[in-house]
User: Fold this.
Amino acid sequence: MSSSPDYLARARAADSDRRRTRVLKVPDKLAADGEEITVSSVARAASVHRSLIHRHGDLHVAVLAQASEPPPGTATGAQVSRQSLLADVANLTARNGRLSAHITRLERRLSEALGQAAWEASGLGAPADVETVTRRITELEQQIFDLRGELAERDEDLEAARTANRELMAQVNH
Assistant:
């Protein structure tokens, strides 16, 4: 056995070729067996690491191309691709999220309504006609404000009359 750099390079190249060949043959075997074709499943079946497939663009493209093809013996009209199934899963997950948020909002509204009803039924809450009472209070406050304005005007008139009376009395006394 020679330890020259040329021998090592040829050994590495031969090993690389054997691994590449195994990786390229595995997707066909997986497809024939009806198994799912992914980078991980191909790497596992070819006894190589996934990074080998990811590092070599041609191997990665070959695996993805084989994964996107329909399995042999399936009708093209009733075919469901992996991508369409993933899209369906994503859409259903989003819909579940929206429905969950909607249910949470409805539960909160129901809880508030039941809480308000219990508060009113207990007699601890304000009377049912709070709006009427509030409106009446506002009207009375406005009326008080108006009456205070009139009272201030009358006080001014009274003060003016008293001043005029004092002046007249002072003129009569002279």
In short: The CA atoms of residues 53 and 99 lie 40 Å apart.
